[in-house]
Automatic annotation (TrEMBL):
SUPFAM superfamilies: Adenine nucleotide alpha hydrolases-like. This is UspA domain-containing protein. It comes from the Eukaryota. Pfam families: Usp. Residues 7-173 form the UspA domain.
Length: 208
């Protein structure tokens, strides 16, 4: 990719404060260059009954796909798009839906995390991304009321999978002072035998 075309930068986002802080950190750190193309990836999952699980833990039947999309877009507008548009930025939004092999109730979180991790890695490769950003979100999955998907997106399984399998440089943005997240990232990188250059765990702003 030539410099004139700009880089493709991917942020995997969900309905969480951690992801909102991640975006703010990326903007405040001046990591985006003129001409860069920003991509936001959000994953929803559909259970075997054909309904969508979306932010807030709500379900939308297959007969109402437009309502489901409206809810997701409203969340993305509130969390991310509004602030980006105020800066004159027009990111590309990717809403990816997948069908787990079991019901939401019976689905193992570890398997679901791997599936979402694969989707993130695949999207980064398809877009020929130069960098991927994930939010650490440590602890949020334990008290979130936003539903199964939002809790898993903030959990450790997806981060670990992407860290081990993504061929694109990755940065996991943790809240300021979250030394445990940094130690976890470094330990996982050492176990995977991956070099630390080109990615890592960044200390973002503290959650308020």
């Amino acid at each position: 990719m030539s410099s004139s075309e700009g880089r493709a930068i991917l942020l995997a986002v969900d309905d969480s404060d951690a992801c909102q802080l991640m975006l703010q950190w990326v903007l405040d750190s001046d990591l985006l260059l003129p001409g860069d193309k920003l991509h936001l990836l959000h994953v929803t999952m559909r259970d075997t009954a054909g309904s969508n699980q979306l932010p807030g833990g709500d379900y939308f039947e297959q007969a109402h796909p437009h309502e489901a999309q409206r809810v997701v877009l409203a969340m993305l507008q509130r969390r991310f798009l509004g602030s980006l548009e105020a800066l004159g930025m027009r990111p590309t939004v990717h809403i990816v839906q997948y069908y787990p092999v079991a019901t939401v109730v019976c689905l193992q979180a570890s398997q679901c995390a791997k599936t979402i991790g694969r989707l993130i890695c695949a999207k980064a490769q398809d877009l020929n991304c130069s960098h991927v950003y994930l939010a650490a979100g440590r602890g949020q999955q334990h008290h979130s009321s936003r539903g199964v998907l939002a809790r898993m997106l903030s959990g450790p399984g997806i981060k670990q999978y992407v860290q081990q399998h993504c061929t694109v440089p990755l940065t996991i943005v943790a809240a300021a002072g979250d030394t445990a997240e940094v130690a976890e990232f470094e330990a996982a990188a050492a176990a995977a035998g991956k070099p630390s250059s080109g990615g890592g765990t960044a200390q973002g702003p503290s959650a308020v």
